[in-house]
Prior knowledge:
By secondary structure, the protein is an alpha/beta fold. The protein is built from 9 helices and 10 strands. The protein has helices at residues 16-20, 24-38, 52-64, 75-83, 97-108, 122-137, 180-187, 189-201, 223-230, and strands at residues 44-47, 68-72, 88-91, 112-115, 118-120, 150-154, 159-163, 173-177, 213-215, 238-240. A 6-stranded parallel sheet has the order 3-2-1-4-6-8, sandwiched between helices.
Amino acid sequence: MVKADEALLLPEGATAEQGASCFVNPLTALGFVETMRAEGHSAIIHTAAASNLGQMLVKICKADGVPLVNIVRSAEQVAILKGIGATHVIDSTAADFMAQLVAACTETGATLAFDAIGGGQLAGQILTAMEAAVNARAGGYSRYGSEVLKQVYIYGGLDMAPTSFGRGFGMAWAMGGWLLFPRMRTFGPGTFARLKQRVADELTTTFASHYSHKVSLEGMLEPEAVAGWYRRATGQKYLVVPTA
Length: 244
């Protein structure tokens, strides 16, 4: 059972397929921008940025004038995001990844990141790049680092290894978790309603989803299908069609 104020009314003529992915990814992407505004940041860094959600965030930030730094893991993914209008797209496998990230942080002033990877060193690398960018603009030196708060929110677990980092980013930093529904409750019902309406209004544009496979309820349990939808890969989005 879903409460009426938690439901999203689809626009006239919307299909079940369009409605299947109209909630979590769109509201998460919008929630990132709301979090940025609420916490006084002015730009965003996003990892695993070629995902369906990441592409939505690119479109939102472009429309809303929000500087966005996208981190991906291949040249092909760089091309995908550049193709939809992204300005800053960085390949984490590049030899000069950190130099590119510092440059993007310096240009955008980003002090907020949303990390879908979770494990490994990336979250710490982002904090380090933010600090380097802040210090490049600073007028003085402190052995405690800058006083500018640098925040990374982990919202996914594409890498289930421990999150590890060196302390190369001073003392003004924070790392924590971000979940959609708890966060939406902090925004209040008015904001939640406004965001849902934007999703409905832009269902076939900003928030359109594309599926690589469509499977039945029985078909999703086939070994080949399980191997496919369990694999965390960009462009491999499965739609379960119960009536198929």
